[in-house]
Amino acid sequence: MGPRRTGVPVHLLRHLLSNLNSRPKAHLAVVFIAVSNHLTVVALAASPAVLSMPSLHPTQSACGPDSSCDALAGSASPNLSLPAGASQCHDSGPAAACSFGADAKASSAGTTSLPAGQGACAAVASKPVPSTPAACGNALLTPDAPARSSGVSAGPAIAPSVPVDSLGARLPDELTLTSDTEAVRAGKPALLTATTNATVTGTDRAIEIFDQTSGTLVAACAQGSQCSVGYAATSGVHEFAAFVTPPTTTAPNNAVALPSNHVSVGWLDSAIAANRTVVGPGQAITVTATSTFDVQKSGRWLEIYDLSAGARVTYCSRGTVCTTTMKQTTGGVHQIVGYITGKPEAVSMPVNVTWLRVSLAATSIGPKSGGTVNLRATANADLSGTPWVLGIYDQNGNLVDHVCKSATCTVQAWMDGSSNPAYTAVIGALPQGKPGLIERITHAVGAPTPQPLVDIQTRSTPVEPTHLLWGVDSCKAFTGDSTGELFYAVAKKLGTPDFWGRYLTDTVCPGISSNEVSMAARYHLGILPIYNDYNCSDVRYYETGHAYAVAAVAAAKRLGIPAGRVIAIDIEPPGDACPGAANVDSGFIEGWFDGIHDAGYVPTYYGNGTSGTEFASAWCATVSKYPNIATDSDLWSFQPSLLGSFSKVWNPGYGPYDTGCAGNMLAWQYVLSAGAVVDVDQDEAISSLPLWYPS
User: Fold this and answer.
1) N or C: which end of the chain has fewer CB within 10 A?
2) pTM score above 0.70
3) Given this structure, which CATH class describes domain 10-42+50-99+269-355?
4) pLDDT tens across 7-41, in order?
C-alpha cells in the first residue's frame, strides 16, 4: 500500500486512540514528534476565518508535509483504486479522492467555562451584563506591547464612535482579542482573552466576546480591562470578535461599540466510515475519512491508516473528505482509522473491515482413527448480519449435518477407520427457495441430498481429523536429573508420552538441556516449550507482555526451535505465590501475542480456561477487540484439575474448561503431580497443536 511515512508505531496509534481525550499536551509532543517535525509552520490570519498556510517557495509543491509525496501519488497499488466516478486528489497518496463536505456541527455553538485557576467576574448591580462564566482582570493593553498570541494579528486601533467627554469617564479606544491556540482537538477548550487600554469599571460599557460563526455570546465582563473565557467546540473553524459595548446578547455594530480584531480557532476531529464491513477476499470496500476542517489550510494531511497492518493506506493533502477503495486478496480483519497529522493530531475511532476467512478443526477425541469426528468451523466475522452462512463438507461433497449463521459452526461426523476422510469449511449463501436449510439439516436415510451453498466467498484448506496426544510436563529434566531418569520412569509407570512440556530457561526449574533435546529427537517426542522466567504477579499491560515475548523468542532461537512452533506463557492462578495474577489484562495478552507472532512462532497461553475467571475474562475482552488473536494463537487450560490415578491408557476424555468465547483450546493439564516417584503433571493435547519435534 505504498511506503509508510506517518512515522508512528502502530501500538502508539492504538494508545493514542484510547487516551486521546485525556493525555497531557507535553506527552503529545514526544509521541508524535516523527509526524510534527516535518509539518509546515501554521499561522492564523486575522481575516478571513480560516486556518491559513504561509506562502510556499515558487519551486515547492503545494503537497504539504512530505517532500516526496508527488512520487507517492504515482505509486500504484494493486489493492487500491479510486472510487467509481472520483478523480485523483492533487499532491496526495495513491488512489485518494478528496472533496469538501459540509459539517453541520461546524456552526453549532460550543460550551464556555471559567479559565483554569480564575474566579468568575463579579456582577455590577447598575450594569445588567448577561451571565457567562468569564473572568475579568485589570491588565491593560499598552501601545508598545499589545497583547496577542503567536500568529494572531491585532486589528488597527479604532476610535470609539461615541465622544468620550459625553460619557463622563474615559472609555477604551483600543481592544485586542487573542487565543492561546490556533487549533485544538474537538471538545477541548481554547482560552480567549480580550484586553483594552482602559477599564470599563465605572462606565456603562462591558467587554464582550462573540462566536461569530454560531452567533453566540461567549463572555461578558462588567468591569476591568481584560475579559477571559474558555471555549470548546465540537467541530470546524470558529471566528471570534470582541467588543466594548453597552451590555447586549447579540453582536453589536460599530456605530455603538468598539470592535476588536477577529481571531480564528479550529476544532480538530476525524471520523471513518466504510460502505461495507464484511466481504469476501478480493472484493472491494470503499473507506472514507473526514476532517472537521480543510487540512491543506493548516499544513496537515488527512490519512487513512490501517492499524492492523501498521501502515498508511493513503492520504489527502487537501479537503475535509478523503476516500479510497481497497481490497485484500487474503482473509483478515483490519482496523482502519482516520488520522489527521500535525500538532495537535486527531485519530478517529476505528472501523473494523473484514475480508472473510474460515478455518476448520477436525478432531477425533481418541488415539485411534475410528469413531466420532468433532468438526468446528471458525469464521473471522459474525455472519448473523450478512447474507452468508457457514457450512462443512466432506470429501464427497456432502454437507455435514447443518449450516450455521454465526462466527462458529460445530457439527459431528462419523468415520469407520477404513479410510482417512477430509473435510472443508466454506462460507457461502443459501440457495434461493431453500430457506429450510437455515434450520438443522439431517442426513436421514433416503432424504434428498441438500443443494450446495452458492456465492461461495471463501473456503478452508481440506483438513484430515486430528487425534488426541497424551503427554506430561515437569519441572525436572526428563534425562540427566540427579534424582534419576524421569523419561524411563514415566514410560514404565504411566506409558510413553507423545509430548513433554519443559521450560525454556533456568528459573526455579532448570531449562531444557541439549541432552533432553537429543533424547526427544531419538524418540520422536514432541516438546511443548514453556516460558515462566518472570514475576508471576506482573501480568499487566502491553509493554510487559511484549517484553516477556521478546525474551522467550530469544531463548527459543538459542535452542534452535524453528518458526511455526508454539511458545506458551505460564499464567498462574492468583494465590499466595502469585497474588498479582488476578490483574491479568487484555494489554498483557495482546503484547505476548504481538511479540511471539511477529517473530514467526505460535502464541500459546497456559491459564485457567474456566469462563468468568481472571484469565478467561481478559482473554475474551482481547479477542472481542482483535479476533485474529483468537484464530492465530492456542490455549492450554489447567482446569478442571482432577483427582485420581491416571495414565496413558487410563486417561479422561478430553474435556478442558472453555473460556466461553473464541479460541483454539488445544491442550489440557488434567492432573497435577502428587510428588510421587513419577513427579510429572499429566496432559492431553489435540494433534494440531504445533509442538516442537527436534530432529
Assistant:
1) C
2) no
3) mainly beta
4) 444 555 555 555 443 333 333 333 332 333 332 22
